[in-house]
């Protein structure tokens, strides 16, 4: 709907950033009501908690998902929340939900429009209960405009199949392969929903209006493949590498094995000039591309990684040693028991929660690719036992102890 106004929007002058003391989090005081389950939805609330939001998680009295999704993924995705159990199928549960909505700034839920309205979260009812509330809605194939699959259910793996990830990763229609179950699209969609919420909060600041902020698994599946979708006059054929045997995109952007292990060689701009500048490789610079990958593989295997790293030092080309998930984790590992965790110096940290209430340690990634110059990021507290804050939360919204006891 914005296409006709796009040029005018892009030509607007940059708006000045609001002033801030930097003492607290960006979302300090923002109340979030979390009605999500599984992975993508809960990721929204746990991310918002890192920036100071107060998140209240509502779970059904009878579990809606299995322990793997509810507990194992919950160790990460339910951090920093207070948890209340409500039977939303009962009048009492719906009344409690209405009170929670009335006090909330943000409500998060994952489900189709049909499920949303059945739960009592239609735009009309939200506007009546709390006109300034923002609903963050996450689903599989939905969006601002209706389509033939808007009300279809789906999970990460189904979105991978529908958007082409499985074909691209597997190498073809005959060998489709799932990419990183639960990690490729689910968590990304939760982050996309946070970005959508950021825009909605900015709009509310300027207009006072609430509304709906949306994200979808299918949209995230397309987002991570956008680099393959650009077309323009003179573009080479869409023949990007695919399948588990793919090692790179041509000889100048490719994995090679050095004498002491695997590395990635990147010379996407310099290409042949990069080879001419290295004495050990100069004689290969004029080889045709069909032969070059094999020739480079043979030559790189004759020397250790350190030799090639030094050879390309100071140029715009490089070799990078390939690592493992374990080595990456260990290089960024910090123990909770050792005191304050510094999140300001790197894109992520792995925190070993060695004082975890489950009685064992748990290694969890603290994503902090966004590191604000003004504002504080925190590591939220551990996932609560589901329902442990039920009495506290119901008391906060006006229920007397005897009424709470009757509901329980």
Topology:
Layout: H1 6-10, E1 31-34, H2 40-50, E2 54-59, H3 67-72, H4 74-77, E3 81-85, H5 91-103, E4 106-110, H6 113-118, H7 123-129, E5 134-139, H8 156-163, H9 165-170, H10 186-207, E6 211-216, H11 217-223, E7 253-258, E8 261-266, H12 272-276, H13 289-300, H14 305-311, E9 318-321, H15 325-331, E10 333-335, E11 348-353, E12 362-367, H16 390-396, H17 401-407
Parallel strand pairs: 1-2, 1-4, 2-3, 4-5, 5-6, 10-11
Antiparallel strand pairs: 7-8, 8-9, 11-12
Please summarize the sheet with the most strands: 6 strands, parallel
> Can you give the helix content as a percent range?
25-40%
Which oligomerization state do the chains in this entry correspond to? Answer: single chain
Overall mean confidence score, pLDDT: 91
User: What is the ordering of alpha helices and beta strands?
Assistant: HEHEHHEHEHHEHHHEHEEHHHEHEEEHH
N- to C-terminal separation? 47 Å
- In total, the number of strands is 12
User: Any idea what the shape is?
Assistant: globular
Class by SSE composition = alpha/beta
Low-confidence stretches: none
What percent of residues are in strands? Answer: 15-25%
Based on CA atoms alone, the radius of gyration comes out at 25 Å
Q: Note the total helix count.
A: 17
The largest sheet has its strands arranged as 3-2-1-4-5-6
């Amino acid at each position: 709907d914005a296409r006709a106004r796009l040029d005018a929007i892009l030509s607007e002058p940059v708006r000045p950033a609001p002033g801030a003391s930097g003492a607290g989090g960006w979302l300090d005081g923002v109340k979030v009501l979390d009605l999500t389950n599984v992975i993508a939805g809960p990721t929204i609330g746990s991310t918002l908690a890192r920036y100071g939001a107060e998140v209240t998680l509502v779970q059904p009295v009878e579990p809606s998902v299995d322990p793997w999704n509810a507990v194992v993924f919950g160790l990460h995705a339910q951090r920093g929340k207070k948890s209340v159990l409500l039977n939303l199928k009962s009048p009492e549960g719906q009344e409690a939900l209405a009170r929670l909505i009335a006090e909330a700034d943000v409500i998060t839920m994952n489900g189709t429009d049909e499920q949303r309205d059945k739960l009592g979260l239609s735009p009309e009812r939200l506007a009546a209960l709390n006109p300034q509330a923002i609903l963050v809605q996450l689903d599989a194939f939905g969006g601002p405009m209706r389509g033939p699959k808007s009300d279809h259910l789906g999970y990460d793996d189904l979105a991978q199949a529908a958007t082409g990830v499985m074909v691209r990763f597997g190498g073809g229609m005959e060998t489709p392969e799932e990419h990183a179950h639960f990690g490729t699209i689910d968590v990304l969609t939760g982050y996309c929903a946070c970005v959508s919420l950021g825009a909605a909060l900015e709009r509310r600041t300027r207009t006072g209006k609430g509304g709906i902020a949306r994200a979808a698994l299918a949209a995230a599946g397309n987002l991570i493949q956008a680099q393959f979708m650009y077309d323009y006059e003179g573009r080479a054929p869409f023949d990007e590498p695919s399948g588990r045997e793919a090692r790179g995109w041509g000889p100048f952007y490719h994995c090679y094995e050095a004498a002491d292990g695997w590395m990635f060689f990147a010379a996407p701009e310099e290409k042949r000039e990069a080879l001419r500048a290295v004495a050990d490789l100069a004689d290969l610079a004029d080889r045709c591309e069909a032969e070059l990958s094999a020739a480079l593989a043979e030559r790189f295997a004759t020397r250790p990684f350190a030799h090639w790293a030094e050879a390309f030092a100071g140029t715009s080309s490089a070799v990078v040693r390939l690592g493992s998930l374990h080595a990456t984790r260990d290089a960024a590992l910090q123990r909770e028991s050792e005191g304050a965790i510094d999140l300001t110096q790197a894109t992520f940290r792995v925190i070993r929660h060695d004082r975890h209430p489950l009685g064992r340690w748990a290694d969890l990634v603290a994503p902090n690719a966004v590191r604000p110059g003004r504002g504080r990021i925190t590591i939220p507290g551990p996932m609560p036992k589901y329902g442990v804050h039920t009495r506290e939360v119901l008391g906060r919204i006006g229920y007397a102890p005897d009424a709470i006891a009757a509901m329980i």
